[in-house]
Design goal:
Blueprint: H1 2-21, E1 35-41, H2 45-61, E2 64-70, H3 75-88, E3 92-95, H4 104-112, E4 116-120, E5 132-135, H5 138-152, E6 157-163, H6 169-182, E7 188-195, H7 200-213, E8 217-222, H8 225-237, E9 245-249, H9 253-261, E10 266-270, H10 272-287, E11 295-297, E12 300-303
Parallel strand pairs: 1-2, 1-3, 3-4, 4-5, 5-11, 6-7, 6-8, 8-9, 9-10
Antiparallel strand pairs: 10-12
Helix pairs in contact: 2-10, 3-4, 5-6, 7-8
């Protein structure tokens, strides 16, 4: 009886030992969340609309999206913000380079830290440095602006471009496209480009001075929001609405109102919100090791008083707050 009892105990111990030696089955690991940071300039309605598109898409994709604001559109400020972002080690950085060359070292530093980079709106001179880009065809936009302005001034007279600053890829391409196309109109006298450095007060003064130096100025192409609003202010204060033809750019409500009022003759518009959507889609793809389209173009349209209220173009309008 003792022998049987002893054998039972030995069997139980052996069974326990075999059980304890079995490798534990690991619990299924939850999929890592993708962390994305969008660095954009604050106080600009265009970037707010891009942000809203990005936030909406991040929710759809189930990824973390953090928004970092830059105080201005300058190399030093963007470098400072990118350096701070690198320290948080996100999977992907989304940003619009403020300079095609000057911000490249900061972007390269992010890449060296293992962070994927998606750019939108503007580009680096070295396109190969980034993982994906979402932009408009700015050169084509510049050509379209020249054609439109030539039409509204009757293909004759003095015209000028009002832009933000040299070295920015997007507005630089708009200017280049404009200059190439305007050569096709021999009776148009192109006066060149004036830069306001995204200072709206400075832009107003530039236009007021031009109205004095060239009182027969026929037309202006403003390459961004600040310039467009400044042209409107200068013409209103000089009582020159309608006397100088204007092709404006971007679609905050003030610009749309100016178009309807007759302050602007046409407005170049494009899908800012979609740019944010596509940028997040590209960011998620590169974070997963996929290969999205290297370069994605966002569509655009020339708005006039005749088509500005068309339902099909309401998607071009800027939003003030994300839903």
């Amino acid at each position: 009886m003792k022998k049987i009892y002893l054998l039972c105990i030995i069997g139980i111990i052996a069974s326990l030992m075999m059980t304890s030696c079995q490798p534990a089955t690991p619990a299924p690991a939850e999929e890592d969340t993708i962390d994305i940071v969008l660095a954009r300039v604050g106080g600009d309605p265009f970037y707010k609309t891009v942000e809203c598109g990005a936030i909406e898409e991040a929710k759809n994709q189930g990824v973390n999206l953090e928004i970092q604001s830059m105080a201005n559109f300058e190399i030093a400020e963007q470098t400072r913000v990118i350096d701070a972002i690198i320290a948080t080690k996100p999977d992907v950085l989304i940003t619009a380079p403020v300079d095609a060359v000057g911000v490249a070292p900061a972007i390269q530093k992010a890449k060296d830290a293992g962070i994927k980079v998606v750019t939108f709106d503007t580009r680096l001179e070295n396109f190969a440095m980034v993982d994906a880009e979402v932009i408009t065809d700015n050169f084509a936009q510049g050509k379209l602006a020249a054609e439109t302005l030539a039409g509204v001034v009757g293909e004759k007279g003095k015209v000028m471009v009002l832009s933000d600053m040299p070295g920015i890829y997007t507005t630089g391409e708009e200017q280049r496209g404009f200059e190439e196309q305007i050569k096709n109109y021999p009776d148009i006298d192109y006066l060149g480009t004036e830069y306001h450095n995204n200072d709206q007060n400075r832009a107003v003064q530039i236009i007021k001075a031009k109205l004095v130096s060239d009182p027969d100025l026929a037309g202006i192409f403003a390459t961004n929001t600040f310039g467009s609003l400044a042209v409107g202010t200068a013409l209103r204060e000089a009582d020159m609405i309608g006397k100088v033809k204007v092709v404006a750019y971007d679609t905050p409500q003030e610009v749309i109102d100016g178009l309807k009022e007759g302050l602007f003759d046409a407005v170049l518009a494009y899908e800012a919100k979609k740019e944010g959507t596509l940028a997040v889609q590209a960011a998620v793809a590169v974070a997963k090791g996929e290969t999205p389209e290297k370069l994605t173009y966002v569509g655009n349209i020339m708005l006039t008083k005749d088509n500005v209220d068309n339902e099909e173009y309401t998607y071009l309008r800027y939003v003030n707050e994300c839903q």
